[in-house]
Design goal:
By secondary structure, the chain is mainly alpha-helical. The protein has a two-stranded antiparallel sheet. α6 crosses α7. The protein is elongated and about 85 Å long.
């Protein structure tokens, strides 16, 4: 029989508790502990990190569900954006919507409309400036 200390395997225990186990179990726990330690050391040496790496990292990785206030605010902002898009000239509104909301590239827009890419770029820039002025009153 071998004596092991449970605090080594269960660090959250408040005090060290000794336990008598057979030699086979003690050897298995010892091997598992060494493997876990070497894995942790290898992760640290190679710059790997886990979600338990400390404050701030999880917040960047995990996206929490929005609160009701955030949902309402998002809807209001979207409504204001679409209202402002409706006040733009048709070509600017269509191009800004297609590029930023639908994700169509400026080159593809120019090809589809049969115009030079520089025309689409200038139109989108003017549209964004107009949107900025229109939304300034809302925000």
């Amino acid at each position: 029989m071998t004596t092991i200390y449970l605090k080594r395997y269960y660090p959250y225990l408040p005090k060290g508790t000794a336990l008598e186990v057979s030699g086979e179990i003690a050897a298995a726990l010892s091997t598992g502990g060494r493997l876990g330690d070497s894995y942790t050391r290898r992760k640290r040496e190679h710059g790997e990190c886990s979600l338990e790496a400390g404050d701030g990292y999880e917040a960047d990785v995990i996206r929490l569900p929005p609160t009701p206030e955030e949902i309402i605010e998002g809807r209001e902002l979207r409504a204001a954006l679409y209202a402002a898009l409706g006040q733009l000239p048709a070509a600017q509104a269509r191009r800004v919507y297609a590029h930023y909301i639908l994700g169509i590239s400026k080159a593809d827009l120019a090809r589809a409309e049969g115009v030079e890419p520089s025309v689409v770029c200038r139109s989108i820039e003017r549209g964004l400036d107009n949107l900025k002025n229109l939304l300034k009153n809302f925000l």
